[in-house]
Amino acid sequence: MDRLIYTAMSGATQALEQQAVVANNLANTSTTGFKAQLATFRAVPMAFGDGSTIQDDTTRTFVLSSTPGADYTPGPIQQTGNPLDVAIQGPGWLSVLTPDGQEAYTRAGNLHVDENGQLVNASNMPVVGGGGPVSIPPGAQVTIGKDGTVTALMPGDPATTIALVDQLKLVNPAPGALTRGNDGLFHTSDGNPADADPAVVVTAGALEGSNVNPVSAMVSMITNARQFQMQTKMIESADQNEQSANKLLNFS
């Protein structure tokens, strides 16, 4: 009887964990540059013994939820008119510095200049350029090119005096080389900074939206809720069967 209880219990537990992943995706349908987290179930057979003899048979199959990675499909690009907003066309990432000084990567290009004159993202993390954080001259009119070049024009100066400030560090590591951190940013699996990729192209004055499909996320939430309900009913049935068996043994 315990086989049914523990098998159903593992299914109910993992359905709750997968529900948390789907709920997080749904909560970020409006988050700039958000990449949906993937979630799936996998079967884990349980067997007596070490599997070395013919008597070592599989007695039950548990279920585990796993998050194989993120959905790297590009989100929709919307024009904003803000010259500091950038959206990456196709594959690629912006580089930022985390508070501990490590390099991380994001698709969220809603940038601004902070009080120290540094170009930062919405979380006030410095954007990485060719030689470190990108610094903007005070009062300058900033333009960002398709290759990430950052130029500045001082007030009152003719357009011919536009100056090159820096170039955004745009990278494109293999999807398998990235992992999502608790901060929502992506990091390289080996911890080493990714190399700049000149093939990455950005669009200024635009932002990439979340790639989460709200309808699909809602359907997944309903499916997980029904799976959890089914597993809990199996646990109740196993408990009722066990109580009935105990009554029969008491009468014998």
Automatic annotation (TrEMBL):
Lineage: Bacteria, Pseudomonadati, Pseudomonadota, Betaproteobacteria, Burkholderiales
Intracellular or extracellular location(s): Bacterial flagellum basal body
Protein name: Flagellar basal-body rod protein FlgF
Domain Flagellar basal-body/hook protein C-terminal residues, every copy: 204-248
Cross-referenced PROSITE patterns: FLAGELLA_BB_ROD
Family, similarity comment: Belongs to the flagella basal body rod proteins family.
Listed InterPro entries: Flag_bb_rod_N (IPR001444), Flagellar_basal_body_rod_CS (IPR019776), Flagellar_FlgE/F/G (IPR020013), Flg_bb/hook_C_dom (IPR010930), FlgE/F/G-like (IPR037925), FlgF (IPR012836), LlgE_F_G-like_D1 (IPR053967)
Gene: flgF
Residue ranges of every copy of the Flagellar basal body rod protein N-terminal domain listed in the record: 5-35
Organism: Paraburkholderia largidicola
Keyword list, A-Z: Bacterial flagellum, Cell projection, Cilium, Flagellum
Subunit-structure text: The basal body constitutes a major portion of the flagellar organelle and consists of five rings (E,L,P,S, and M) mounted on a central rod. The rod consists of about 26 subunits of FlgG in the distal portion, and FlgB, FlgC and FlgF are thought to build up the proximal portion of the rod with about 6 subunits each.
TM region positions: none
Domain Flagellar hook protein FlgE/F/G-like D1: 87-152
